[in-house]
Amino acid sequence: MSLDPVFGDGYTAERIDLGHDDEGPVVATLVHRLRRPGDRPARPAGADRDLPPILVGHGWSDYVFDRDLLDHLGEQGYDVWALDLRKHGRSLLPGQTATAIDTLERYDEEIDEALRRIGTDRPPILLAHSTGGLTAALWAQRHPGTVRALALNSPWLEMHLGPAARLLLEGPVKALAERLQGKPILPQGSPFYARTTHRDYGGLYDYDLDLKPPRGHPFPAQTLGAVLEGQKRLAAAGPLRIPILVMHSSRTRIGVLFTEQMRRSDTVLDVRAIRQAALRLGPDVWVEAIDGARHDVFMSDADARVRAIATLDAWLEQVSGPALTMKPIGGAPREGGAEAASEEEGQR
Questions:
Q1: How far is CA 297 from CA 74, 220, 254, in A?
Q2: 208-262 pLDDT, tens per residue?
Q3: Per residue in 144-200, pLDDT tens?
Q4: In this model, does residue 127 exceed pLDDT 90?
Q5: Which of 66, 280, 316, 322 sits a CA distance of 20 to 30 A from 247?
Q6: How far is residue 23 from each of residues 20, 101, 146, 147, 182, measured CA to CA in Å?
Q7: Which residues are listed as membrane-spanning (predicted)?
Q8: Interval 274-325: pLDDT, tens
Q9: How many CB atoms lie within 10 A of CB 76?
Q10: Structural domains present in the chain
Q11: CA-to-CA distance for 99 and 96, rounded, in angstroms?
């Protein structure tokens, strides 16, 4: 255990050794925020137990870097942890193919060890983004009882345009993944997301462009195959019996030319597909469309970020008590949010 090289003071990082693959040693990195003076008590007044830990996960070609969000959660009394998966961020070693994975189930090794180190008697809430949200949902599906709840930030639960598009892609992508393995299957992505978020391009946020490149790392064929396989398995699985929060933008804007609307839209995923897949996850799902949010809702302009954090805080307050079943925030999921997403999709 040592000082985290990304966050510095107040955070530790410990390596999780995962053996070797054909590229050499494989590791993951578990980050922990240390409690500090001024944090709220871990056990709220009148409660009979501590708040659950929160384990934060990242998306594809990404790493956990939002210290302000982690500090906010810690200040509320939560014991905050973060996990950089193998071949991502802090865990990417020289000579490795960034983000390469043959099946999302392989991440079970580092998630299992992270939960062991957090404490198996303290099932955490998983707060995960994009591909990490899919990985978290699959973990919860395969390992009931190990997590208390899921908070998913624009999770990649389904392909653009929904299940029909995924079914068309499964066969060709599987064949290409078997042949190409870690070689790229897609051209590097658009730089528009970085243009809307990173300080160097006029955005509000700072992150390491080597660990999270503006166009993303080259997308390995086997990784896309793993995502499609994971989406297929999740869609076929039974309902999750834990509280789930899903947040996403109110609109998608994907195109070859940059527009100012992209600053307040998801420029990566189809928000309508996210919402439709989210509502099928289980009986206790709250889906919230955050107006003006980006793909990572916490990396949005200040007004949308504040709304996203307020939604997360309100949901956490309800699911962190003794009861595992959440009460919907403000009633059933709002149909207006779904309609807004559909309208925006039609305007792309």
A1: 19, 26, 16
A2: 999 999 999 999 999 999 999 999 999 999 999 999 999 999 999 999 999 999 9
A3: 999 999 999 999 999 998 999 999 999 999 999 999 999 998 878 889 999 999 999
A4: yes
A5: 322
A6: 7, 12, 31, 32, 11
A7: none
A8: 999 999 999 999 999 999 999 999 999 999 999 999 999 999 999 986 533 3
A9: 18
A10: 2-346 (3.40.50.1820)
A11: 9
Angle 221-222-228 (CA atoms, 0-180°, nearest 5)?
95
Please report where in the chains the tokens 């590229």 appear, as a residue.
Answer: 23
Distance CA 343, CA 345 (A): 5
Could you give the CA distance from residue 31 to residue 1 in angstroms, rounded to a whole number? 9
Q: CA-CA distances (angstroms) from residue 304 to 68, 187, 200, 252, 343? A: 15, 30, 21, 15, 20
**pTM to 2 decimal places:** 0.92
Please give the structure tokens belonging to residue 141: 């599906």
* Distance spanning both ends of the chain, measured CA to CA: 47
* Dihedral (CA of 33, 34, 40, 42) sign: positive
Backbone phi and psi for residue 11, each to the nearest 5 degrees, phi listed first: -135, 140
Tokens read off for 104? 């999302």
Is the Cβ–Cβ distance between 324 and 240 less than 8 Å? no
Query: CA–CA separation, 149 vs 94, rounded Å?
Result: 35
Alpha-carbon span 98 to 184, nearest angstrom:
11
> Distances in Å between the alpha carbon of 64 and those of 29, 32, 323?
10, 11, 29
Model pLDDT, residue 161: 86
Let me know: does 51 contact 122? Beta carbons within 8 Å. Answer: no
Contact status, residue 87 vs residue 100, Cβ threshold 8 Å: yes
The pair of three-digit structure tokens given for residue 116, joined into one six-digit string: 């062991």
What phi-psi label fits residue 263: left (phi over 0), alpha (psi between -120 and 50 degrees) or beta?
A: alpha
Number of Cβ within 10 Å of residue 83's Cβ equals: 29
Give the CB-side neighbour count of residue 98, counting CA atoms within 13 A.
Answer: 17
**CA–CA separation, 23 and 6 (whole Å):** 25
DSSP code of residue 148: S
